[in-house]
């Protein structure tokens, strides 16, 4: 069952599907390999794509946005993760990128969310998914909402990926699932193929059942998810047979990040302990390591996006963040990844101080603002994770932290006061999701792994637009941008 194609793509998530689609559109024959059934973190995701500059949905919703306004905000987040020229191209191409996704069958919608949230309810599909309000002063027009959630109930990544997968198959790419890439083949300094191990017969069926059943528990209930995947891995070790797939033009690595490599994450610091690994067991860093073994370099491997959401309910944004000494820090109106990053710098410990007025408004917002999967978080924030007392001194003593000091710019408000524990390891029902952002260094014009002919990388296996900091939708947007770029350029390589 060994094979040959112009382009071999390792990993069938958002980046891999987009690379395969563009390579096929350019006339290349394409084989896509995936260790599991495909979908990766993409299919489990919220399906939010950060896009702007005047997308069809923004125009329909009556929102004014320009590539310049999008660039001006994103440069605060992206900083030097990519060059200004690349970020500009990302913003200028953004409306076309979203239209391209729609052409592949991914549905979006212009229903605008009227409140600030970390993820809108099923009534809304366009929302402000970043920290735009916190970054800009309020003298000019309101910042444009750019979170484009795939139109589907629940967490929409399932539909986002399903539509891309169908389009990839329609484009003629051959998808080889349950086939794990283990080594790159290099000929005369150029990457020309992949050594893999693939499953067939009954072990393949069992492996499929186990990995499908284990995907969500692996994130949300790791004791069960890990057991199911340990069995799947055993099947791989025991029954997978070696095959070689030759790439006449080149190979694209789009095998996700390394959040499943707990040892590497642990080495970055004890404050990351207890976070929720946002991905799949495929995010074990193999893709990145394959690139390094072929001569590639990595960057930003210490960048982990830690999401600490305090909305919904949106009233909680009016609270005050304090550390274990009671010192104020950060800005609760910012996106959860920015708050998470500040908490990590404080040994992973933080509390949100709110007054009685905020608490009453927050409670009233629950039914309209919280999606079903956010109910646990809301229950934690407004009940189990909170202590209340008539004075600031008493509530701080109850929480076991230093006493916060009053401040004329943001006074404490009406008693009684409540402190909500928003630490990384706050407690059951309020996990802190984490995602790795670093990866292989690529040429920003082409997506080629720097210094390695015939090898390309995309998505979370590569350094990209979201590799400095994440706002909701920026990873998928980068996967589409970098996946398409890699697919277009690898297809132009001379055949060898
Ligand atoms: C619950 C959740 C919600 C999220 N919500 C959002 C959101 O709304 N918006 C957003 O922008 N981001 C979101 N993210 C992050 C985003 O989903 C990921 O960063 C993104 O999907 C990564 O895409 P990718 O193509 O790089 O990798 P993946 O989608 O993970 O695909 C990689 C594929 O490679 C395969 N693979 C790995 N190793 C090998 C190997 N050796 N051989 C063959 N195949 C291999 C894996 O099986 C996997 O299918 C979310 C993540 C999660 C988990």
What key phrases describe this protein's structure?
about 500 residues; alpha/beta; seven-stranded mixed beta sheet; four-stranded antiparallel beta sheet; about 15% strand; globular; binds flavin-adenine dinucleotide
Task: Summarize this entry quickly.
With 496 residues, the protein is α/β, with parallel strands linked by helices. It contains 17 helices and 19 strands. It is 36% helix and 17% strand.
Report the portion of residues in β strands.
Answer: 15-25%
Number of strands: 19
Shape: globular
Bound molecules: flavin-adenine dinucleotide
* Overall pLDDT level: 95
- Spans of at least 5 consecutive residues with low confidence: none
User: What's the helix count?
Assistant: 17
Taking Cα atoms only, what radius of gyration do you get, to the nearest Å? 23 Å
- Major pleated sheet: 7 strands, mixed
Which secondary-structure class do the elements indicate? alpha/beta
Q: In angstroms, what separates the terminal alpha carbons?
A: 21 Å
- Helix fraction by DSSP (H/I, runs of at least 4): 25-40%
Explain what you see:
- The chain is of the alpha/beta class and 496 residues long.
- Helices cover 36% and strands 17% of the residues.
- It contains 17 helices and 19 strands.
- Strands 1, 2, 6, 7, 8, 9 and 19 form a seven-stranded mixed sheet that branches. The protein has a four-stranded antiparallel sheet with strand order 13-14-16-15. Strands 3-5-4 form a three-stranded antiparallel sheet.
- The chain is globular and about 75 Å long.
- The two termini are 21 Å apart.
- Flavin-adenine dinucleotide (FAD) binds next to helix 1, helix 2, strand 7, helix 12 and helix 17.
- Flavin-adenine dinucleotide (FAD) is lined by residues 10-16, 33-36, 38-42, 44-48, 180-181, 254-256, 278-280, 282-283, 286-287, 435, 459-460, 472-476, 479.
